Amino acid sequence: MRLVLLGPPGAGKGTQSVELCREYGVPHISTGDILREAVKSGLPLGIKAKAYMDKGDLVPDEIVTCIVVERLKDPDTKKGYILDGFPRTVKQAVDLDAELKKIGSKIDMVLYFETSVDVAIERLSGRRVCKTCGFNYHVKNIPPKKEGVCDKCGSVLFQRPDDKPETVRNRLKVYEDQTAPLIEYYTKSGLLKKVSGDLAVDELFKVLSKIFSDSKLA
Ligand code: AP5
Fold first, then answer.
1. CA-to-CA distance for 216 and 211, rounded, in angstroms?
2. Strand, coil or helix: what is 7?
């Protein structure tokens, strides 16, 4: 199971990735999470990436592709993986295909979460993230039991700096300009499966599970 989850910010890629990885026992590779971790740790990569992330712009292709190519060398990716938020430009997709080809591998399926703009904005503006374990909540859709406190580890919840309205507007524009062309790229390669990102978390999970069993991926 070598999957790519594609869709706009707020489509629910991260939320579904966590559930799918738990169900199917493959690692979740989120470039957003890797970059945020590098920012938090003050690594040179994080210092470079922060300026782009704060504005809602994409981090340069060569940096991100290098991170993913290195991560895919880890032994836990042998039985598959879910790429969440990568590739995000046609260049990243072309380079990923070339790198995988070198090792006789390829992507099996790209799940495109088609999501309306209103839903994406509502989800991003209500997202709250645990400072310690990184679990994602939503103030209305997926609220914690106690406001502002993580159910899993008791830490404080915060709003991602790039979830502020002005940055969200730019992220959606960047998605349309630079990432949406991947829909055509993966349609042409016959890998794209479209699902509705507007569905509730459990409903979408069921749709995805059925796609995997129908296509014998799981
Ligand atoms: P990244 O972290 O990848 O952000 P994103 O793609 O903008 O994705 P999000 O995390 O905002 O949305 P999501 O679809 O995962 O939704 P989620 O499940 O969290 O990237 C951040 C930045 O890093 C980028 O802007 C860029 O600078 C850089 N970067 C990363 N990858 C890069 C790359 N490849 N190239 C260059 N730069 C890169 O859900 C959102 C909210 O909705 C949550 O509150 C959740 O609880 C709720 N929710 C989820 N699903 C549902 C549902 N079905 N119903 C109701 N609520 C739901």
1. 8
2. coil
Instruction: Decide: 200 in ligand 1 pocket, CB within 6 A.
Output: yes
- DSSP secondary structure letter of residue 83: E
pLDDT, tens digit, for every residue of 109-142?
999 999 999 999 999 999 999 999 989 999 998 9
Tokens of 38: 């590098």
Whose CA is closest to 11, among 122, 93, 89?
Answer: 122
**Residue whose C-alpha is closest to residue 174's, from 53, 12, 11:** 53
Active-site residue, 140 included: no
Ligand 1: residue whose CA is nearest its atom 1: 32
Structure token digits, residue 185: 């790229």
Among this protein's residues, is 13 annotated catalytic? yes
Secondary structure (3-state) at 129: strand
Give the active site residue among 13, 50, 123, 128: 13
Distance in angstroms (rounded) separating the CA atoms of residues 44 and 58: 17
| Helix spans in 56-159 (H) | 61-71, 90-102, 117-126
Q: How far is the CA of 13 from the centre of ligand 1 (A)?
A: 6
- pTM score, two decimals? 0.95
